[in-house]
Structure formats: structure tokens, C-alpha cells
Amino acid sequence: MSEDLLLELRDLSVSIVGKKETLPIVKGIDLHIPRGSIVGLVGESGCGKSMTAKSINNILPPFARVTGGSIIWRTEASGEVDLALLKEKEMRKKCGTEIAMVFQEPMTSLNPLMQVGEQIKEVLTIHGVERDNKKAKDRVIEMLSKVGIAEPALRYNAWPHELSGGMRQRVMIAMAMICQPKLLIADEPTTALDVTIEAQILSLIKELCRNNSMSALVITHNMGVVSTLCDYVYVMYLGSVVESAPVKELFNNPCHPYTRGLLSSIPHVGDNPEFLHTIPGNVPDMKKHFKGCDFCLRCSDDIKQCFFEKPALTETGAGHFVRCHRSLGA
Amino acid sequence: MQTLISARNIKKSFRIGRKKRFLAVNDVSLDIFKGETLALVGESGSGKSTLAKLLMRLIKADEGSIAFEGQEIEELSEKEMLPFRREMQLVFQDPASSLDPRMNVRDIIAEPLETWKVYDSREKTDERIMELLDMVELKEDSLKRYPRQFSGGQRQRISIARAIAVNPKLLVCDESVSALDVCVQAQILNLLKKLKQEMDLTCLFISHDLSVVSFIADRVCVMKDGEICETAPGEKLFKSPEHEYTRYLLSSIPGQ
Ligand SMILES: Nc1ncnc2c1ncn2[C@@H]1O[C@H](COP(=O)(O)OP(=O)(O)O)[C@@H](O)[C@H]1O
Ligand SMILES: Nc1ncnc2c1ncn2[C@@H]1O[C@H](COP(=O)(O)OP(=O)(O)O)[C@@H](O)[C@H]1O
Ligand SMILES: [Mg+2]
Ligand SMILES: [Mg+2]
What we know:
The structure holds 2 protein chains of 2 kinds.
Chain A: E1 5-17, E2 22-34, E3 38-42, H1 49-56, E4 64-75, E5 79-82, H2 88-95, E6 99-102, H3 106-109, H4 116-126, H5 133-146, H6 152-155, H7 165-177, E7 183-187, H8 195-211, E8 215-220, H9 223-229, E9 232-237, E10 240-246, H10 247-252, H11 257-264, H12 305-308, E11 314-317, E12 320-322
Parallel strand pairs in A: 3-8, 3-9, 6-7, 7-8
Antiparallel strand pairs in A: 1-2, 1-4, 4-5, 9-10, 10-12, 11-12
Chain B: E1 3-16, E2 20-33, E3 37-41, H1 48-55, E4 63-68, E5 71-72, H2 78-87, E6 88-91, H3 95-98, H4 105-115, H5 122-135, H6 152-164, E7 170-174, H7 182-199, E8 202-207, H8 210-216, E9 219-224, E10 227-233, H9 234-239, H10 244-252
Parallel strand pairs in B: 3-8, 3-9, 6-7, 7-8
Antiparallel strand pairs in B: 1-2, 1-4, 4-5, 9-10
Helix pairs in contact in B: 4-6, 5-6, 6-7
């Protein structure tokens, strides 16, 4: 079973390490990415999605650190390694071309002073994947065409500012894909885009995964994105996974009150409720430690136990995990 | 139905580069009826914000006419415009940049009341501020605090309180819930709907999110490239869209 997992986060913790105190922001999460599948990670902003993603390929900001658990990476080329134990340099050598990342705002990740084609080509040459200049350029042009950029040979010479938001995101995806990674981590890849462009980018990611036997971890706060793109989904709240399930199961049978609240607070074209469902209260401060369930103060379904004891993530159906005393029949 | 704002054949172009001009709003006519929430939807760059600014006369149209309660406002001087300014209030997308970080909540909400000299005493002004806090569901102890001490959703509540303080006839919300998380977004959308019912507000609601629009709007205008390509009651537009572009937009919503 575990050989089929490309990536396995085991009890992973990330904390902000200050002089006086350590503030946990990712609190022991388990997350599996099976080969060839697209896994979603959803939750409200601040719940720790990006930090989880950044810990995988070792690009956490200086103030944050992996403080526990392991990140097991399994490929034929590198065998089984714990990425959490690697230094940045080893990491780059080991899987610099095997894990690629796409961010929300392509403009900040592109060099404004370099033509986009050259930027993509640089990825190839830095990793020594293709040393021949002409061949490298051809590969870039082919990739640009694959991500749906018209007249790729011409666009090779375009500057980032000459491209629209959607085109820049395509360039970012081309750059991520050029070394044929095994895993694509996409952090809010379409949040800054218009809905029509979003639809195009999502089907592009899906198609690229299918045709290149690539896996993906897609981070988003948009449940619609999850339902079109993902096979399996993890719901995060305050640094923990509160529920995870195959996508259809999660939408048809959400069990955690937070997941249910999240799903029902989204307006949908076609149903016209008088008012939307809302989860009472706000996301609590990560700094305040609470010994009970993290969600219990906003929960309408809470029982006594919720105040005193953190529920464990428990399998309630095939591949369906829930962290809630109530749904465990307590 | 009474018309609050009526715009006819308005055009607006911007200079880009030395010689070229870009037509941001092209020959748009529209009516906003009293008491309704009219939504403008469209992709970024389609001209939604520009059209809203034209209707509020924050910028001047190149051509066309705009009437507010039957009175032409397009040609009015700044001074003549003043009484109309009070009647049209705006809530922006990003409350972080539209709220003065150095002012506390009391002063932020008091500002429009004092500018328009709505009350003759500080007591009455403060009474109104308390009432507004209650309407936007903020606690009393918010008064002495500063914008940075609030979450994004709470800041948007402050902006809304400020905008409705002087009982405007028109509230313009430009992507006012776009930056918020779904749970907070639902709270603010509910608040806007509640206020509309309580105050009989007319609202021009701008958004690129069709699902949000379907919840809040009575009528919807779909914009594309500076033009309105379809206007219809919300239910009709989402059930049986007529324009090809509207259908394209609807089919692009992920997960629908
Ligand atoms: N620049 C920062 N400085 C201090 N704390 C931060 C910073 N960025 C993130 N954090 C903390 O890390 C938590 C998780 O952040 P992040 O993973 O970016 O959330 P998400 O991607 O789910 O929106 C936040 O709640 C915040 O407390
Ligand atoms: N002050 C301005 N100068 C030049 N171009 C502008 C100006 N304001 C808006 N535009 C252009 O007009 C078009 C419509 O913009 P806007 O009304 O902001 O669209 P939306 O709100 O629908 O995203 C865009 O292409 C924008 O670049
Ligand atoms: Mg993030
Ligand atoms: Mg706009």
C-alpha cells in the first residue's frame, strides 16, 4: 500500500520559532498523495495550507521550521527519503526536478527583467537537464504550446508584463512542468484569475497530470475548484486536518461540523436561500491553547467531552476520516 | 417602479500611450430602480468599476447623460454635485486601504455624519454611531479600537457602517466581499441583505463572482469589453441566459 504513495506526510508539525516561544501552526498532520492522483487541501486563510506545502520542498520562510514528523518521498530514482531531514542543497539535488511548485500570484514569481522563454529555459539549464541551447529552446517552445499559449515561438521572447494574468499563470505552469516533475504543488493557482481563465487553467492541470502520470497537491479555499479537480481532499482547520475523504464522499456526506458549515456557507447559482448558512464566531487565535476540540466554541453540535479532550482523526468509512467526538458516536 | 438612477448612452475612454485611447465603457444605458439590488458582473477589465464611478460621477463621462431621481447630474459643477454625493456611498473591496489606520472606529464612522452635519450635537452623533454598530453587528467596545485590531470581515463591517451612516439612497459595493473567506463572505452577504431589507436601500453590487451575485441580486447586468451584453432578473438570467457570453461565464464556474 505505502509503495503506491508518492508522498506521505507523517505527523508533520511546523512552528514559528521565536526567541521566547514556539508557536505551532501546522499541528501534526498526516497527508497521503498516491501516485497519479490529485489531492486537495482546503481551509480558510491562515489555517496552515501554504506552510504545509512549503515544508514539503523546503521553502519555509526563515521564521518557520519543521518541528516534528516526517515527509516521506518515494520514487524509483531516489528511493525512499525523508525530506524533512535533508538540507536545502541536498534537497535540491535529490528532487529539485521532481517536485515543482506554482503559486497564486505569477507576477511576483517571474523575473520582470527576463523574457519568459529564457526564464523557463534557465530551469532546464540550472538543473543540467538539457545543456544544448538549441534543444533546450525547442523544449521550452513545445512546453509553451502544451500549456495552451498561442504562437509559442513568438511568445518565447515576451516580457512578463506583456502577458495577461492567465498567460502568466500558464507560463508558471510551463516552468513548473518543464523538467517533468513527479509532483506538482499548486498553491491557490487560480485565485487571482477570472472564472473563465480559471476553468482553462484547471482543465490544463488535470490534463497535464493525466498525460504525464504526474501527481498534484492543490491548495485552495474554493470548494468548486476541489470538486472539479481533485480525487481526494483534506479539510484543514487551525493547523489540523479535521476531515479527509474521497471528493465525492466529502461533498455527499460531510461529517465534521466545520466541513458542513464551510460547504453550506457557499452560495450556489440555482438555489436561492433567503440567507446563507454561517458558522458562528471567528477563527480563534492560534496563540491561545485550548485543551478541547479546536472547533468546539463555534460548534452547534458540541457535547461535554468536546471541551476537555481533543478528538482523534478516526476512520468512519472507507477512506473517510473525521476528527469529531460527535460523529464518532460519543 | 421608481427609477433612482438612469444612464443613457454613456461612454468613457482613457488615454493609453501617446496617441491611443481605450474605450472602457462603450455606449452603456441602464436604470437602477429604487429598492433593488442591481449587480454588475463581468471579468476583470470589463469596465465594471469605471461604470460605477461614472454613475456616481466620481469621473466624468465623455458622452451621454445620467439622471439621479430625474435630475440630470452629468453637467453639474462640483458644488452643485455636493447634495448628491451624500446620497451615493461606496464600499470598497479592500477595507485595509480604505480605512484610515490612524483613526479609531468611532471617528471613522463619525466622519460622514460630521461632514454632512447630520446632527447638531455630539451626543446625537454618538447615539447614531451606537445604532450603526448594532446594525452591522459589531460590539460596543469596538469604538475605541483601530482598524488593524480587526479581522478582514470586521473591517468590512466598519466600512459598511460608515457608508450607510448618512442614510444614502444608493450604496455601491465594488467587489466588497471578494477578498473574504467563504465563511466571512457569507456573514457579510447576509448583513448586506438584511440592511437592504431594513433600510430599503438601493444597491449597485459589483462582483466577478456569479454565485455571489445569484444570492444577492434582484437584477443582473453582464458586462463584457465595456458593454452590457445582457440584463435580466437574477432568476431568469441564471436559469435561461440568453447571451452567448453569459452562458460561457456560467459554464466556467468550477464545480457547478
Ligand atoms: N509572515 C508571517 N509572520 C508571522 N506569522 C505568519 C506569517 N505567515 C503565516 N503566519 C502564520 O502561519 C499561519 C499559517 O499560514 P499559512 O500557511 O500561510 O495559511 P494559509 O496558506 O492556509 O492561508 C497563519 O495563521 C499565521 O499565524
Ligand atoms: N484611470 C485609468 N486610466 C487608464 N485606463 C483605465 C483607467 N481606469 C480603468 N482603465 C482601464 O479600463 C478598463 C476597465 O477597467 P475597470 O472598470 O477597472 O474594470 P473592472 O472593474 O471590470 O475590472 C481596463 O482595461 C482598465 O485598464
Ligand atoms: Mg496560503
Ligand atoms: Mg473593478
